[in-house]
Amino acid sequence: MMPNERKLRDAFIAALGVAPDAAVETFTYRGIKEWDSVAHMQLIAGIEAAFDIMLDTADVLGMSSYAIARTIVVRHGVDIEA
Prior knowledge:
The protein has a single domain (3-75), classed as ACP-like (Non-ribosomal Peptide Synthetase Peptidyl Carrier Protein, Chain A), CATH 1.10.1200.10. The protein has four helices and no strands. The chain has helices spanning 3-16, 37-51, 57-62, 66-75. The model has no long low-confidence stretch (mean pLDDT 96).
């Protein structure tokens, strides 16, 4: 796994308090009990800190899955394959 992909996974694991081997790629907002509104804001803060980016309101509201989070960080200039 590439380092930036690992950073994104780690942000999900830390914010949601799930096991390191959790299948975060399948997670959706409110699809698991751990991903509630409070955890969502922790996730946003974790992603911003991990990649030194500032997400806008549309990104915060639209981030409803791991896949969408991945797309958002790429749109902010993060090379997820690096």
